[in-house]
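Changelog excerpt

This revision adds worked examples to the README so contributors can see how folded entries look when concatenated. The first example is reproduced verbatim below.
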Amino acid sequence: MSRFVLVVSNATDGANALAALDVCHELEMRGFHWLLDEEDHVRLGALSNQSLNSSQLFTDQEIEVVLVLGGDGSILRAAELVREQVAPILGINLGHVGFMAEAEREDLQTVLDRLERKDYEVGFRVALEVEVFQEGELVFSSWAVNEVTVEKSARERVLEVVLEVDGRPVSSFGCDGVLVSTPTGSTAYAFSAGGPVVWPNVEALLVVPLSAHALFSRPLVIGPKSLIAIEVLKRSPGAGVMWCDGRRTFDLGPGARIEVNQSARPVPMIMFDENPFTDRLVRKFSLPVTGWRGPEEQG
């Protein structure tokens, strides 16, 4: 039985494209059948000056693993490509921070060995479902791994919104936007916007107002089963735009209602790292821990 691996790459030059194809050929030597989505198939072929076989094009094959050679943006693209499947994603960080990646560039051979032996565990990351209503009619639906953001579409005009949790109003204010994040997304846009870092094993959703003109505009940590709604008030002087993971977008007019809750379909991710999330946080953000002595020995 064929073992299909979808390879997703962020290569933008010839050297990195050749390196990505080298990984593909090594997968082949280990008994895998590697595939590329159409974007990577065209780009890697052009950058490497190689003619890639159409049999390597990902269509609707059942994938065993998605191997991502890149950063968090590439992992989000991979999640989009296989949303209709249950194939787990494994990220090898070739980007900058790469918070979602499970391994670094120097771990590549070890990663391939463990993939070959199926020596890994699969964890599941919370995802979001979002629906947009206009005049009571559903006009758009999507999902996100990191966050859903409602933002003003014009720099010079604020967005007037009202925030609701579980059918009850929390506050109305003018703002640059409102962000709803998963624990995975807490170290992405939500972190930059002043939200808290949430450990991945915590079941919660985050709401982070963006530059809100309000006395109370603190980030909120909300139960995972809650329904969060953001309404663009009809009096709002500006229109809005909604983004899902910065990849899928929808324009919002006055009166639009955006409902966000936890998806029934989490995102499967391969787990190798036995180290606690605390260590990853310290390593990725280069946090100073000099002077730490640890718990005192009990006599």
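The second example, added in the same revision:
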Amino acid sequence: MGSSLSTEDERDGMLDVVGREAGFRVHRVDANSPGQAAGLQSIVDYIVVANGVRLDRDDGTFVNMIAESKDMPMRLCVFDTHTLRTRETVLTPSEAWGGKGLLGITIRFDVTQELSKHTLHVLDVFPDSPASAAGLDAYNDYILGVGDLLFDGPDEFFEIVLHNEKRPVRIYVYSVRTESVREVIITPDRSWGGDGCLGCGVAAGLFHAVPPRRDLHAVSPKQPHQPSLQRGAHPPGGQLREESISLAPAAEAPSLATEQAANAQAPSAAQVVETVAGQALG
């Protein structure tokens, strides 16, 4: 199974897509799952087309398609907010991969977000700190998301961190070394013996943006053209506003719209998201 990247011209056209178009943002990707086999990456990837159908609203279409495609390949178009490219990949829902659900991923329907608005560059990591224990890599790691939520700048990030002091928190980190996103569990604690509750410096802004992928120069504009996003209206009402939502700890963090909803008795993805929003805001 492989995937194809979009052309450089298409990438330039994607600048107008961010913040306007919607899709299913990928969050947790379980090891050895169909989602991992399809190359899906947490936080940066949005599933925008499935089997030729544009997923521009959370009306249950995608959930139903997953259930109906059990053990059959689905062709997905994925928009990457890091590279600002689309790529096509194949995802095969299955119960035989050894975990829960048909895909082994959690997703959230949302407007595409500009990566720089929810990115923090990890600076110095101090010995014997929570950041060190979690394996954060100084100057090579970028924090992209916390639990099932994005954050808006360092102030909101630290508000979330302080809210979960001494409780394990799941964060998503992009590594410049591996050029991939990994899941990290960190336990904020102001009593670790140094300053702060994480024991690492973080920074945001133009000089701390996630750098371009090293392999992009190898992409040929002669590759087959892949489905692109078309500009359109914002998604329908019910969209979550994450700016003021406090994070549940990693051990208790609720899954959002998951592929596990793709069965006859399960609620729609919209119902799952609304339920979780109520719990988080309550």
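Reviewer comment on example two: The first strand starts at residue 4 and ends at 5. The helical segments are 8-13, 34-37, 61-68, 130-133, 153-163, 269-281.
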